[in-house]
TrEMBL record:
Belongs to the GntP permease family. The chain crosses the membrane at residues 27-43, 55-76, 96-129, 136-154, 174-193, 226-244, 256-279, 300-317, 337-366, 378-394, 414-438. This is Gluconate transporter. It is a multi-pass membrane protein. It is found in: Cell membrane.
Amino acid sequence: MSFIIVVLCLALLIVLISYFKVDAFIAFLISSILAGIALGIPLEKLPDSVNNGIGSILGGLTLIIVLGAMLGKLVAESGAAQKIASVMVSLFGTKHIQWGLMVTGFVVGIPLFYGIGFVLLVPLIFSIVYKYKLPAVYIGLPMLAALSVTHGFLPPHPSPVALVVQFNANIGLTLIYGLFLAIPAIIIAGPVFGSRLKHIKSGPVTLFEQKEDSGRYSMPGKANSFISATLPVFLLIIVTVIPYCFKDMGEMASGIVSFIGAPSIVMLIALLFATYTLGIRQGRSIKSVMAVYGEAVKDISMILLIIAGSGIFKQIMEDSGVSNELATSLEQLPVHPLILGWLISAVIRLCVGSATVAALTAAGVVMPLVTQTGANPNLMVLSLGAGSLMFSHVNDSGFWMFKEYFNLSIKDTICSWSIMETIVSVVGLIGVMILNMIV
């Protein structure tokens, strides 16, 4: 009976979001409360479950997401992202322009949220299209595949960070494993698949215009742009690898590494560094930099609420005891828990459209399996992330952004964008299972 209730509540969540267009946070709240009532949680204790669910998940990741959003916004506003893009294009040349744009999307996608990176880089794609007379989908899809992979696989993006917190995974190891998965996923879904799409014709950009800087501030240099944008990644990798390289560190040294390696501290260091290198050093006042940060917080406020909503659902599952029941039942299935997590996330993605909602909702269902089956929590984060990218279609905003930007038919959008997302998802799962045999 508990399983039927959970399925019905998940179905209600999907219907509220996809059919009735209810805000994801409100849909989570309604579905979670109804689930709590149906699963027998006393009414007087239900508000505590709601509050505890929000607090338990946001407490560990609010700082990371907010600081990451601030860094990404400054990278975009300062012109660092454009500088990185222009360097990549010049390095790879027109013959290998797909690969240059792929690397650009990957580097820029690490600090930037997907929507920001998309709006920022699509004008670059069309500037190259017009200059070299190349098919837009053919050269643009590798860049967007890279953006998608960083969004689904790599911290400090909201969904991977939230999953790391929920599964008590190691954010540094998750990032390192994610980088190993990202490379083949981007190559296969980007240049390899994109090379088959030369026949798809597109129109000019008609929806959005990139902000033009008034010239008040100087552009950052090449090295400055790369270092400032990717500093969090290198810091996380370094502090994760140090304990393996220096196993006999003293207590004080170990404590310092642990402190610096805390994700929130890593993001704070990177943000302070960028505040100077991309802000003050380029002629911006502290006030103007803080204005950029204020806008960044507005951009991710709804993302935080969606994550909070998933925390409520998770807490209801735990407090009602249904998590352990589901884990026991699911454990009997002849399916590896990592594959099961990917499958549940993929099904929810197909129904809801939002990758973040899909991954976080699936996490609440499969979380007990990590403990009971001994599945690697870092790989479970990546498995759910891969599943959450499965076959983007008409209920996903990314689908429509791609269609309208490139002025495509729905058929051509499915044949290009939707298939690219499916390739990323499947290659990600294959990579997870290979890593599971190694680590």
